[in-house]
Each structure stands twice: as C-alpha cells, then as structure tokens.
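Hey, resending since the last one bounced:
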Amino acid sequence: MTPRRRWLVPTVLAAATALLAGCAASRAAAPPVDRPSALGTASPATPITTPGPGLVVGLGDSVTAGTACGCTTFVDLYAAGLAERQRRPVRAVNLGKPGLSSVGLAQQLGATPARSQLAHADTVVVTIGANDLVPLVRTWQEGGCPQTCVAPAVSVMRGHLGNALAVLRTDLPPDARVLVTTYWNVFEDGDVADREYGDGFAGWSDAVTRSANAAICAAAAGADDRCVDLYDPFEGAGDRNPTALLADDGDHPNAAGHRLIAATLLAAS
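The structure tokens again:
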C-alpha cells in the first residue's frame, strides 16, 4: 500500500475517508462467495517425525556368536551399517549360541528372552544348520559318507529349520525382515581342514556344504524369508582358499570374515 502523504489537504482526506467507509459497508453487506483457491483446500500442517530406533536380532550358532574371533560380530557391524544408511539409531541384540542346532533354535525361540526381543525387531539374521550335520564327519572318517549318506541328514535339517522359521514368525512384527544365511563350509575349511583331515576331505565337505546350502535356501523360501549366500563371498566359484577370512581354528570367521558377512548382508538388504 502506498504510504499516505502528509501534504494532502484536509478536504481530500475527508472525502477519501468517506469513500473507504462506504466500500467497507458494501463489503459487509455482500453475501459470502466461495472462490476456488490455486493452493487447494487448506489442511493442517503434517508434523515432521523422526524415525524411531531400529532393532537387529542375530540368531544362530557359534558363527553368529563370534566364537574364536574376539572381534565385533557381523550382527553388530550389520546394525551399524543399517544405522548409517537409514540415518537413525539401530540397536543389535546377538542371541547366537555356540553348538546350537536347528532343533535348539526352535526351542530358544519359544523362551521368553528371545520372544521379548523379537517382538520389536525390524530385521532378524539367522545362521543355523551346520551343527545338525557334524555327525557326518565321523561317518566319513570311519569309511566314507557318499551322497546317499548325506542326503537324509540334510533333509532332516531342512525340516527342522523350516519349523524354526515358522516359530520365529509368530512373534515378529508383520513388516519385519528375516535374512537366512548359508555357509562357506559347514565344517572346517582352508589350510586347517587340509592339515587335520587330509586328502579328500575338502572336496567332500564342499559337496556337503552345497547340499546344505540348497536346503537352507529352500527352507527360507518356504517361510517367505530371504536367503543370503555366503558361499560365493568366501569361496568364489569353489576354487578360492578362505583361510585369510577364518580364525585359527579354520572353522569360524575372523574379523575380516565378520566384516565380509556384514557387507554381504547390507548388499542384500
């Protein structure tokens, strides 16, 4: 509005005042008219919300537990990676237990400590099944264990794992994600395996692992969960020596191995 100028004569000011008063009266008397707005109907402002903290729960055997490593486990590393990606706090709870089998996992999932954590989980990572197959090593040492020996044990493991994954879903929020990993080897691997078991073991254990991994992925698919392959990152096409990724026992991942697992999980998420 143009500022009033002080040099206006009083008569002009009086006339303008009367004119404005008349316009105001006319507007007051006019009925309301609805006019469309270019901005549309006004609505309350949408509040800006900050994403709540996330929760990653790790389930499984000694691989999950971080046995023989003395390092930050892949469960914690994966949660940290998700936190950076999602720009929110993500907490990790590691429920891995050395020696746990797929049957033991189902039992663990029925207990209150696990159920209370899983009820708030966004993501669950499961690594299980290798301990189900450990008895096969003794059979191989005592005279061999061909595919006809391996297949029944793998089939039983798949059934138990499928049952555990079904139990797992009963306590999870509907939108929670479950990642089920395979193994690079269900037994010892690399230089340690060659030294302790001798000729023939590496090829046989690789065949058992491939069979077990197929069963693990099938069980995951049956539960509508995602199977994350760890064989290729560690073994390549089966011609890579994974010793540099393993602890001194040749069985569990070292710090580099845990970092690799976490990176693989992030790539699959």
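The domain at 54-268 is CATH 3.40.50.1110 (Rossmann fold).

Sorry for the duplicate.
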